Structure formats: C-alpha cells, structure tokens
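Our consortium's second objective concerns turning raw sequence data into structural hypotheses that experimental partners can test. To show how far this objective has progressed, the report includes one record in full. It was chosen at random from the queue rather than selected for favorable results. The single chain below, 222 residues long, was entered without modification.
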Amino acid sequence: MIVKRLGLVEYAPALEAMRVFTAQRGAATADEIWLLQHPPVYTLGQAGKPEHLLQNPAAIPLVHIDRGGQITYHGPGQLVAYLLLDLHRRKLKVRELVWLMEQAIIDTLAGYGLAAARKDGAPGVYVAGDKIAALGLRVKNGCSYHGLAINVDADLTPFGWINPCGYEGLKTIRMKDFGIDASVEQVGECLLAHLQRLLPPIGETHNADPPPHAAEAARVGS
C-alpha cells in the first residue's frame, strides 16, 4: 500500500490523475491511498440533478464527475481520502468497501470523543443525525477510485447553497463544532490507520457483514 499526502490540490487534476492511474494499473500495481484537500469546488455525480445547486454567490466551480451520487462540496479544512484499490485482489465487494470506509470514519471520530453512526437510506456518516462525512465511489474493471470526505474545520457556508447529496434541509457539521482543534493532517493519519487496519490483506477474504444500505451507498455515493 502506497500512501500519498498531497496537501491542497485542485480538483480537476486530481480527478484526472485518479482516472489515469486506474486505467494504467496492472495486476502487480500497488494500491494507493491519497490524503489531500481541495480548493472550493462543487462536484455533481453521474446521475446528479443540477437543481440541487440552489445558489452560488461565491461562483464556486461546478465539476461533473464519474462517481455516483448527487452534489457535494469540497474545500479547505475538509479531509479527502481517495482509495485506489484493486478490489478483486483483496476479495472485496463494493458494498463491503463502503462499509469499511464508513467504519473507518466512525472509528476515527470515536477517537476524538464523537459518537458517529450510519443512517439507514442515507449513505455517509452522521453525528446526532447531522452529516459530518460523505462517500462516493467509482469502480472500473474491479478497481476503485474517488473515496470519502470528513469535515474537520471547513467553512460550511457553501453547503447551505446546495441540497447536500440531494437531501433538502440536510444539516452538515464539522469536527470543529464540537471543540475539536485537530488539523486535517492529524485526522488524516488517524483515518489512515483505521483504513489500513480494516482493509483485508491481498488474497484474504473479508468477512464483515455490511448493513443493507451499504449496497445503495456503493451505487449512488453520498
């Protein structure tokens, strides 16, 4: 497993790099996890509805992308982790990977004293019903890209200009709201440790029993 800590990266070049990596990888290519942040950007999934962008007074760029799901926002202060994995080699199904990603987020937040949970019918991770982390994946030829995002200390104002992940009135929160002053980099290292712990080694079967909604998360993103 190769880990890349990339800092602040424009969205479009990162997306293209993921696509190129996935298209060019072979049977022996090492899996990678990228930890980074993006400048302000909205992304809209394949079946996303433009009307979920309610207003855009800051003229934040909108990028149409190839993951599942509706619209979401990325910006500084939000931890983004991209998982470029060969699922066949790790004997992982997509819904199992979604479950693992959610569990890694839940365990990361627990380490900071936050009780986070999944929510039936609404992919992502929540604290007291409010969304603190989102997921979205694309799987091509058995290999995943895109990943997850955790709001650490990001400006949440741009979330108020959209229906986050297509849900009207969904409240989006961040770790800072609970008095947590950890940096994006520190949270990233905690998340990385949990991802590495939960991901099955190459060639081993994963025995977790994902909840039913994980299959929907794998399809639509959040």
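The partners drew two points from this record. The longest helix spans residues 94-110. The domain at 2-220 is CATH 3.30.930.10 (BirA Bifunctional Protein; domain 2). Both points have been shared with the crystallography group to help prioritize constructs.
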